[in-house]
Amino acid sequence: MNSKKFTILIIALFLLFTNLNAGLPTFFPVSSSKVMSLNGIYAAGNDGISSLSTNPAGLGYLNGRGVELSVFGRLGQQDYVRDDGTLFRSFRDDDIGVNIGAFWKISDKITIAADYNNAYQYRVNWPFAKFFEGELGSSVLAFDHFNDYSITSINPSAAINFGSFTIGLSLNIFNIKHDFAFYQGNAGWDTTETQNAAYQVSIFEDAWGFGGTLGIQADLSSDLRIGAFVKSSVSATLEGDARSRLMVDVDSSVSKTSVSSEFEKPWVLGLGVIYKLTDQLTINVDALYNLWGSIQTTQSFTYGNEVWNERLSNLDSLSGYTGGSFPLNFENSFDLGFGIEYDTKSDVTVRLGYRYSQAPNVESNYTMLYPAVDQHWLSFGIGFWFEEFYLDLALAYAVGIEKNVLKDKNFFFPGNYNGNAFVPSVNIKYQF
């Protein structure tokens, strides 16, 4: 393929991805196309700067220098059917991710790298309207109803090779943004014409956080490699603003105040094996364990105004939310996957993958803001080699496993939850 055709292909791929819509309620990171097509974990593998999102020890198997760009989208939708048969279906919001970075093997034993990555995105956004009827009349009100965590990271990393054994370390610098919207009811609305039946509450917070990833890889033979990594927990105090007309109309207070809350992301353990069956066929098996059960059990919002704190400290029987505290009753969860890679020996590689991903939710934790269910992920990818250029394409599809939540376990949000998603990605690497 000549350089002109290659340039046209890359431009076409970018135009394709910039028109994608997306949104997934999961903290599972999206890395490179190759890793995604081989189950998304690939703990014993190496694929350029994608190793910084999985196992940094993989850097030790790279040669020379290289720059890399990954672009990916998340095209997901959540369904919630209440126990009375009412169907809710989430929006497909724009969510395009980018991973860009470079690596350099500065000696026979040491490789350094750094990247900028916004692979973490927890997002669910619902269209929502509600009918109210009282003594003085009726009304239909529409509300923003979403939960959006956007986490970008800068990851300076290094790996040292000791022959058949490699160790890698990444420093993870996170910028965490939380955009959150729900509604709260007003019990006395039908006694006056100056108040609404319910009010929008909108919160935006952000913070910087820090973590680290330590990984190892070892060649047990020419055909067998194992890898393992551990990602540290991340804690940060989010700060920002909260807005609502509720406290103005009902309490003669202010419509905007400061707000803070604590964010926690748990320790993650990963393990994987790669085995070369033939010169052309390689398989990988991987597992991931997420210690969600070790984080805080509630996300508590502290408002800068006492009227706000008092008003939002009690459970709202209309929305089912307590505006000052949201449950995070998570349990530890795991992912298990495998992949297969076939080298055609003609500068083209074909890949297939599967991953079972367990959601940390328990029945009492399910709401429209935390609707994640277990999923089966199926993935396909193809890689091309153009001398010093590498181009990888992948498409992953998630099939949700419907979760039935009983009313005796969750009074306000019983019913059936489900979701599905497409994650297309393109990865370009120039190695020299």
From TrEMBL:
Topology within the bilayer: Multi-pass membrane protein
PANTHER family membership: OUTER MEMBRANE PROTEIN NMB0088-RELATED (PTHR35093)
Gene3D superfamilies tied to this protein: Outer membrane protein transport protein (OMPP1/FadL/TodX)
Single GO MF descriptor: long-chain fatty acid transporting porin activity
A Pfam family it matches: Toluene_X
Subcellular location: Cell outer membrane
Keyword flag Membrane: yes
Keywords tagged on the record: Cell outer membrane, Membrane, Signal, Transmembrane, Transmembrane beta strand
Annotated signal peptide: none
Main location group: membrane
Protein known as: Long-chain fatty acid transport protein
CC annotations in GO: cell outer membrane
